[in-house]
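Thread: "does anyone have the structure for this chain?"

Original post by V.I.:
We have the sequence but no experimental structure in hand. Need at least a predicted one for the grant figures.
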Amino acid sequence: MSRRGRTLGAIVASVTALSGPAMWQEILRDYDKTRSGDAAEEIAWFKEQPSLREAIGTAVRAVKRDRKRYDHQYRIWRSAIPQAIAALLALEGRIARVETFDELLHLITEQLRDIPGIGELYYYDTAFRIGVYLGIYPTRVYLHAGTRAGARKLQPPVDYRKDALEIGELPSELRGRPPYVTENILCIYRDWFGGDAHQIRRNRRAGRC
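Reply from O.Q.:
Generated one for you, tokens below.
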């Protein structure tokens, strides 16, 4: 084979699109190496809240253990936070009685829907953090703007227009992960789906939900 032929072959190989097991292997390896610790720390932090009232306040403020705001919620309007705290504390008794994550998310969404400066990702994250304190976790993968963009690229196709995906609708590589982890993966890595190996490695850690 000529030098030109070998070069062309190398170029073609470097841009061959990853899909199926090969793509998920790259993504899951990167998640486990660079992201899983953040999720574990978030869960530990909200489990440690001293009361439901404190858990609600901390979740609404979207602050980490160091009191800095979570990166993907830095755009929350400051004026929305006291309104959201008051709105959810007014439901503290009802929140304490919820039995499923579906019920908790619906309750929080309805209560916060009319407050400007927040949106569906904020509703989900707030519900997730309060749910951690209550010991209630998602059993489905909920779709907000970022996860929906990821779900839209999945193969085989899924109905990304729904509010949530059942575990059985997901690629087999994701079915062993907790739904909240899959939610993160669909959001963070949405631009990697169908990408080539070179591009994936070049963009490592670049994603943000």
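V.I.: this helps a lot. DSSP finds eleven helices and two strands in the chain.
O.Q.: and Confidence is low (pLDDT under 50) at residues 1-16.
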